[in-house]
Specification:
β14 and β15 form a beta hairpin. The chain has three domains: about 90 residues, Rossmann fold (3-Layer(aba) Sandwich); about 55 residues, ATP-grasp fold, A domain (Dna Ligase, domain 1), CATH 3.30.1490.20; about 200 residues, D-amino Acid Aminotransferase, Chain A, domain 1, CATH 3.30.470.20. It contains eleven helices and 22 strands. Strands 10, 11, 12, 13, 14, 15, 16, 19 and 21 form a nine-stranded antiparallel beta sheet that branches. Strands 3-2-1-4-5 form a five-stranded parallel beta sheet, sandwiched between helices. Strands 6-9-7-8 form a four-stranded antiparallel beta sheet. α1 crosses α9 and α4 crosses α5. With about 375 residues, it is an alpha+beta fold. It binds adenosine-5'-diphosphate. Adenosine-5'-diphosphate binds next to β7, β10 and β15. The site of adenosine-5'-diphosphate has 18 residues, from β7, β10 and β15.
Length: about 375
């Protein structure tokens, strides 16, 4: 594209995803705007213009976007009605508000999968806790709040009817328990011309105690036919959403090798951090290519990689101190990303480390080494 004027692009949300998106923006001619309530947020100091305000408020989002060329999001809990109005007035939104609307609510998200024949675990919609008793025959299942859940909060495993009391007393999805072999994520990019690019699947290893991601390894170690199935499901899903943008699709591979969609994020995603160093074109660079109308990038893997999250240690709250950073930085094949959050608290995502290596065993050994040496205290 021959860019004749400097495009003004806004990001709703100022967390670490916004920060890394802005790091990639620095390679292009673009004027960046961030809307976020917290002036000390990770993205605040990397944009050209920081606007303090609530991304959930109609007037605030509308006023933020009305003089911009395009908008994107780094979190889906945004005011979609304001985005719809902006879209109708000619502001480009990546992804389309219609896609955010479907995904934002787990009920509409699951209904979308069903009506688009996207394989996903069987489900029932519940409006309140009482309704769960009627569906005790559906257990074991996973109860998921329709709105407001994140990082495992808003997700409750219900093994049998004795656990029904742990369920949510608000609109939710009750999803059949999957006998999980592996959890993977596939990132798909689609531009305005509906051209697509797909990143090799990444594998997520969860900590069963914290219900949080333990570490991640890419590309995922699965048979080619399973990976192919995951790719075609991810593409089918994004084509169904019919929106340009970048989408991360989290999937389960069950014990029989069946692939089922867990959930979709209509934005850059934590499962794609490694693409900064491990793939030719990072997910962040890819989203700029889409927004600025440049050719899609190369998603191929340069080297296998793993990601370790740096989270606040148990028992420490306050101004963050990083213990063991020298040790990690002296390793030859690691990349440290600290998100610029001054305050730590237990479990807070403070940064991540990407490790690259030809040798998968070395990746896993180094994950363990980093977990043992790096600690965020106060
Ligand atoms: P969040 O949006 O908070 O990350 P998810 O819907 O991804 O929540 O669920 C969190 C975790 O719970 C998943 O990564 C998976 O380990 C487990 N889980 C979710 N749904 C199911 C299911 N249907 N069957 C088995 N485990 C599930």
């Amino acid at each position: 594209m021959n860019q004749s004027k400097i495009l003004k692009i806004g990001i709703l949300g100022g967390g670490q995803l916004g920060r890394m998106l802005l790091q990639a923006a620095a390679n292009y001619v673009v004027e960046t705007y961030v809307l976020e309530n917290d002036e000390q947020c990770p993205a605040a100091h990397l944009c050209h213009h920081f606007i303090k305000g609530d991304i959930k408020d109609f007037e605030t989002v509308y006023n933020f976007g009305k003089n911009l060329d395009a908008l994107t999001i780094e979190i889906e809990a945004v005011n979609v009605e304001a985005l719809e109005k902006l879209e109708s007035e000619g502001v480009k939104i990546y992804p389309k508000p219609s896609a955010i609307k479907i995904i934002k609510n787990k009920i509409t998200q699951k209904e979308f999968y069903k009506s688009n024949q996207v394989p996903s675990p069987e489900f029932i919609i519940t409006q309140n806790k009482n309704e769960l008793t009627i569906h005790s025959g559906f257990l074991p299942a996973v109860h998921k709040l329709a709105q407001g859940g994140y990082d495992g909060k808003g997700v409750q495993v219900l093994k049998s009817d004795t656990e029904i009391d742990k369920g949510f007393d608000a609109p939710s999805v009750l999803e059949k328990m999957v006998d999980i072999q592996k959890e993977i994520a596939v990132i798909v990019a689609m531009n305005d011309k509906k051209e697509t690019a797909i990143y090799p699947a990444t594998e997520m290893i969860f900590d069963p105690n914290l219900n949080l991601l333990d570490y991640q390894i890419s590309p995922a170690g699965l048979p080619a036919d399973v990976l192919q199935k995951a790719n075609s499901i991810a593409l089918q899903l994004v084509k169904g959403l019919d929106s340009p943008g970048l989408f991360a699709i989290e999937m389960f591979v069950d014990k029989n090798g069946k692939v089922l969609v867990n959930e979709t994020a209509p934005r850059v995603h934590n499962s794609g951090h490694h693409t900064i160093e491990a793939n030719y074109c990072s997910q962040y660079d890819m989203l700029w290519r889409i927004i600025l109308n440049y050719p899609l990038g190369n998603t191929a893997v340069i080297l296998p990689s793993s990601i370790v999250n740096i989270v606040g240690a148990e028992g420490y709250s306050g101004v963050a101190k990083y213990e063991g950073l020298d040790e990690v930085l002296s390793m030859k094949n690691v990349f440290v990303h600290l998100y610029g959050k001054t305050q730590t608290k237990p479990g807070r995502k403070m940064g991540h480390v990407t490790i690259i290596s030809k040798d998968r065993n070395e990746l896993i050994d180094q994950v363990k080494e980093i977990k043992n040496s790096l600690k965020v205290i106060a």
